Amino acid sequence: MRREHRITQVFIELADTLVDEFDLVDFLRTLAEVSVELLDVDAAGLMLADSDGVLQVMASSDEQVELLELFELQQNEGPCPECFSTGAPVVNADLGRWPEFAAAAAAGGYATAHALPLRHRGQVIGALNLFRTSTEPLADEDVALGQALSDIATIGLLHERQVRGQQELAEQLQQALGSRILIEQAKGMLAERAGLSPDDAFTAMRSYARGTGQRLGVVAQGVLDGSLKTSALPTR
């Protein structure tokens, strides 16, 4: 598939948030994954602000980055918290300005980190974290495309907020945070049972959720309580 066609396909997918089975966790994981696919980066993660304006890790392209993002929030330092507070991109910055985060990033194999705001008309609802193993600067075209992906995702989320109502979206975000906890627990359990990596366990649950029209949280609950057998999941 030509890259231009894939970009168009991704933009359409990110803009379509009004489907009945819209799953916020799955949507944000998709944004993280397509960022790695289309940009010259090795990993990506998403943080969204909850109803109190506090950033929460919502999705990551892989397990290692999720831990790094959690560390970033715990220490309240790094490109993502700064990007969210200022509403401006943090790109090609010297990681030495965040010593503890820089050390954690280096331990994970990442030499550079960047953050792009999820914003629309001055409203910032979160940030997209981008990580690279290379020390080379992130190219201007990748920054522009990354910001465009963030913008179209933000417009889709805010449009849903307008259509479904502010309170309902706040409740949905809270439910998504709870769902994410279930997903993390189920991911670990499935990985152990089926001998999978955590990332492959997540992929198996998401494939099953999409194939059956269920939300990821429902599938995760089924894994945890045993009502969904491991054999039913596409683990190969």
Q: What this model shows, in words?
A:
By secondary structure, this protein is α+β, with helices and mostly antiparallel strands. The chain folds into two domains: 162 residues, GAF domain (Beta-Lactamase, 2-Layer Sandwich); 50 residues, Winged helix-like DNA-binding domain superfamily/Winged helix DNA-binding domain (Arc Repressor Mutant, subunit A, Orthogonal Bundle), CATH 1.10.10.10. It has nine helices and four strands. It has a four-stranded antiparallel beta sheet with strand order 2-1-4-3, with helices on both faces. Helix 7 crosses helix 9. The chain starts with a helix and ends in an 11-residue tail after the last helix. The mean pLDDT is 87.
What are its keywords?
4 strands; four-stranded antiparallel β-sheet; Beta-Lactamase; 236 residues; single chain; alpha+beta; Arc Repressor Mutant, subunit A
